[in-house]
Amino acid sequence: MKNKIMKKFLSILLIFLLVPSISYANKWHIKMKKQEKKDFAHYVLKAQSDNKMVFNLRNIKNSNIYKFFDKFEDRMGVAEKGVEFNLKYSFEGHKQDWSRWGKPGHAQRFQIMEPYKETTKKNKTKWYRVGYFFPEDVKIEKHTISLFDFKKLYGKGEKTHDAALNIINNRFNWVFNSPNYTSHKNETGEEYLYFDTYFVNLDDYFSPLKGKWVNVLVNAKWAEDGFLHLWIDGKLRSSYYGDTLGGASSVRFKFGPYRHHMNQATNAGVQIPDLKIKYSNVGKADNCDDLWSGCSEIISQLNGETQLNGVRMVAFCKTAPQSDGSSCKNLGYPNNPKPF
Fold this sequence. Notes:
single chain; 21 strands
């Protein structure tokens, strides 16, 4: 039974692998207005992200997409202030998202991101925090939603995606690049780097991942001798050591809902649900203490080697343009405790 579930999950990954989302030749973003910057700074952003973020150029154009709140309390009595994104399928999306690869209804987003001058340069180490509330009753069937992610820049151009926390067909996955890639043209005709990718399938029985405030902490050294660590609610879930740079010159951090491969769902007769997702305490810093209380406990969980906790399985996927297909394999976790 377990093997059947794993095989089904691998087949799902073949369909819902991350695809290139953007490759800007000129304009990268839309600046926030003065009041928007003040509101995001007050309600959401922390540390180095405070007053330093902009809107993604491909965001949904709808004035009702987000609103700020002073207090939202979850079932455990935890209350936060933040921003709520109201994502509706009827809002559609930017034409290069919505009709990507010539398939209407493919993707839509509303993301807050770093402008080029605020991206993290190669060989630098940073801490990132994202707090989110994803409703318990919303199902992500036959498509994917990214809660936050990173982009690799080569000069001023984005040429590949990297680490992301995604919900793929109702399963939470921590996704990040291996050092291996191939170069192809993307849907805009520009060069894009297709990295082979690790998918760490998170066990929500180990720690709830929706229906409550969830706080994610990431520590990344963007370098050939780099590392990428993920904590959720203070518990180390994934620790990777290796090349996290992939030849890039800098790395961009983004958060906000981005859902894609929706046409896979609608073609199967699955309705794309309205989604209200909340964010709080989002930021980047040089030191853990600028984002988190109790960092000594956080850092003490690291041991300099690969670690996985609260994980169902790990897959390794060779990615390529949609026309070329992809392939995934199970890396044998937990029988293989160090799959990368």
